[in-house]
Amino acid sequence: MELIPQTGVGKKVCIVGASGKLGRYMVQHALDRGYEVVGVCREKSVRKLADYADRITVHGAFTDDREVIERAVAGCDAVLTVLVPWGVHDYASGTAKAVMDFAKPDARLVFSCGWHITRDGGDKYKRGIKAAVAFAKLMKVTRLVDIADQYRATDLIFNSDTRWTVVRGSDLEEGPSEGLPVWSRHVGDPVLESNLTRRTDFALFMVAAIEDDSLVGEAPAINGRLTPSALAHAAS
Questions:
Q1: What distance lies between CA 229 and its chain's CA centroid?
Q2: DSSP E strands, the chain
Q3: Is residue 65 classed as helix, strand or coil in its secondary structure?
Q4: 74, 116, 140, 197: which sits with the fewest CB atoms below 10 Å from its CB?
Q5: Does residue 22 register a pLDDT over 70?
């Protein structure tokens, strides 16, 4: 059995959005690496973290609650944040701003979003992704989702002087870990062609980014390391 490096021993990480599928995987990966874990999630979702009740500290509140975020990130060496564009009240951008305002100046801030986010306009999207984004933009009329808020959130991050990384996830699937995903700066690069990552490995990349200074100031688009495109890239 492969030993998990104890890179988090003596360190504290806050996971904002800890109760979601991605968040719970991040909690497990962080604990496996020895981190002290603090989680933030909506009050009604705290029960989803019951399996970790005696191992982590949980704050039940909306993730854009500035007072709660201030308490949760206090003393944390890193903050991992799931940017969710719920509603029409700047939920994602409010969450990102609260994290950046209250985290320690030298904290590693790692945010998650999808491939649709672009940092420099160099990404090349296929028709399916463009159609999905267009549909998501129309969803604003339901007042349930505002995908534009995720763009506002990442623009705030890109323009900040924090030690940030924005991890852009491909389509996701469940299943056992295949290892740390491969990544590229631009969607459309051949290594990303398969557009599929295990959700647990997305979380693994988020946690691993805490210790990877080469990812500071990067917006890596990720893809599973055992997908056909990743294997073809490795072979070449």
A1: 23
A2: 12-16, 36-41, 57-60, 78-82, 108-114, 163-169, 172-173, 182-184, 197-198, 221-223
A3: coil
A4: 74
A5: yes
